[in-house]
Amino acid sequence: MHQMAPDRIEPMLTNGPAKGTCTIVLAHGAGAPMDHEFMTIVAEGLADHGFRVVRFEFPYMALRRQTGKKRPPDREPVLRKTWLDVIESLGPPESIIIGGKSMGGRIASLIADEAQVAGLVCLGYPFHPTGKPDKLRTAHLKSLAIPALILQGERDPFGRPEEVETYGLPRRLKLQWLPDGDHSFKPRKASGHTLDENLVAAITAMAEFANRIFVSKSR
Description:
The longest helix has 24 residues, at 195-218. Helices cover 35% and strands 17% of the residues. By secondary structure, the protein is of the alpha/beta class. It has a single domain (12-218), classed as Rossmann fold (3-Layer(aba) Sandwich), CATH 3.40.50. Helix 5 (161-164) links the parallel strand 6 and strand 7. The chain is built from six helices and seven strands, in the order E-E-H-E-H-H-E-H-E-E-H-E-H.
């Protein structure tokens, strides 16, 4: 487990084996840091499957940690460059799967082909802004060349099943729905499902996705 001094946090957090055939790199969403409970559960769960998992923060979030003041996300060019710099520091890219929560996964999807990584995993993809279903963020997904997995709650306000099925996404992009889940996969109590169940399902799907990629590469 990554060791932290009590008053500071390192630029990256690492879970799982120091060396391995695959590194999964995860970026946080727009409003929560890399050590948010959701990010930690996913990282530790993937590490339990034997993967090295690395988390990092975009500059605005790192600055928020230093100052204690909330800041809006950096502009997209900064977010893209941060992703590319992180991948370069961890390389080789063919041994890396990238992704993350909401915005972190969306920016990863924008640079995935350019970075020539092995795969992409998005946790709660923001297909459109809340309440703006006509402002789609899907054009680049239709031409994505690398293997990709999107894990989405059935009640996600950024893209529900009945909306997403109209987007014409390619079949090679694997989409898995988590029962009654919201943007963070949390279901309603009355649904009979639990957040723990959905998180386990998401982590298992990510692990199976990564294993398929690297088994096919080893053939």
